[in-house]
Amino acid sequence: VLVASEDRVDAPCVHFTRDNCGGCQWQHLAMRTQRSAKAQLVSDAFERIAHRSIAMPDVIGDEDVFGYRRTISLTVRGNGAKRVGGFHASQDPDVIVPITQCLIAHADVQAAWDVLRRNLARLPVVRTSEAVARPGDRGNKRGAAARRRGGREAANDSVRGAVRDDLRLSVRRLDLGDIALVVQGGIRWHGDDVAALATRVPGCCAVWWEPAGRAPRLVWDRDAGAVEGCPRDEPRDEALAIATSFLQVNQSVADLLHAHVEALVLRESPATVVDAYAGTGRLARSLAAQGVRVTAIEYDERAVAFTAARLPQHSRALAGTVESLIVDAMPADVVVLNPPRSGVAPEVAEALSAQRLVSNAPRMLVYVSCDPATLARDVSRLAGWRVESVTCVDMFPQTAHVETVCLLRPEEV
């Protein structure tokens, strides 16, 4: 930097300035500049990919631009006491930046990580030969030999370029302030490690484990203690199971997003709405409570059951892919699309393009996107639909990520 721009600020995070952490990208930009840049990113995506010019979007956000993340997901690498946990480096995704403090994490999430990073050896082992030192191990020759074998295997993996010793650890603050841990990877836990780890983490209410190649399961909860090895087809607390799968990262801005989308839908005074990619049905349940007949579509069966149990009789929740169910869910006055980052399947765009030509066609589409590129691509596929408005939502301050709400109307036939 020869001359600092007026848009540049001093980044407060040492991991950003010193360690090249990839968790944030824009801490060096003033907040007004970040939001202006996000609007420009969305506008550019429409111009470049959808070949449509749009007015520069407004940006919705709040003042909590640090300490807002209710969940962080870290990579844990190494064996036993030599394990480290952190985020991928921005310029080299194979490098893990050990994190001590994440400034965008909620204070309760940071407090949990403070404990976890000192107890990473208690996470599940990733190979059968891995041995972890315990307080009573000193002087145990058999344990020392096993640890040496584990070290040699790790070194050999490094030579071969394998990365078999990674775990993913998610720390999540639930709605009532409890902490849930989700561990992905590994083959087994040592002894009582799952309970020893969970009871050390302040506010921890549950530990979920997704072993390599297997479905996630609850292995510890605060009420029942360790449950590993016990047959439990269904978690005792359905709401907890849903919360660990679906969690808004930034709750206050998520509330702004929800209010904005709901206002757009209700402004149309619809009798019927399709809520596609409905998640746990927050929007569907809210609209149904106001007398709208809603069809919610979601692939996750647990989420569908959760939503169906809370919808009034005139509404319904369907389990399956949107592309297989969207036609059967019609007719509807309004269709809301809230897909994952990959966007909607081509079949969904084709179905909605065809629906525009029927007599009882939807009067409006509301597309909620977390990726400007896939949003623009999908808009280009929606033949016969014009963009009426685009609004950006700053869900992830200090990063280049942006949520976008795109309102589309059918063109005149």
Number of helices: 12
Structural class: alpha/beta
Order of helices and strands: HHEEEEHHEEHEEEHHEHEHEHEHEHEE
User: If you compute it from the alpha carbons, what radius of gyration comes out, rounded to the nearest whole angstrom?
Assistant: 24 Å
Percent in helix = 25-40%
How much of the sequence is in beta strands?
15-25%
Let me know the largest β-sheet. 8 strands, mixed
Overall shape:
globular
Average pLDDT, all residues: 88
Low-confidence stretches: 131-164, 228-236
The termini sit apart by 55 Å
Number of strands: 16
Lateral strand order in the biggest sheet: 1-15-16-14-13-10-11-12
Task: Give a description of the structure.
This protein is an alpha/beta fold. Helices cover 31% and strands 21% of the residues. It is built from twelve helices and 16 strands. The chain has an eight-stranded mixed β-sheet, with helices on both faces. Strands 4-3-2-5-6-7-8-9 form an eight-stranded mixed β-sheet, with helices on both faces. Helix 2 runs parallel beside helix 12 and helix 7 packs across helix 8. The longest helix is centred in the first third of the chain and has 20 residues. The relative contact order is 0.12. About 10% of the residues have low confidence.
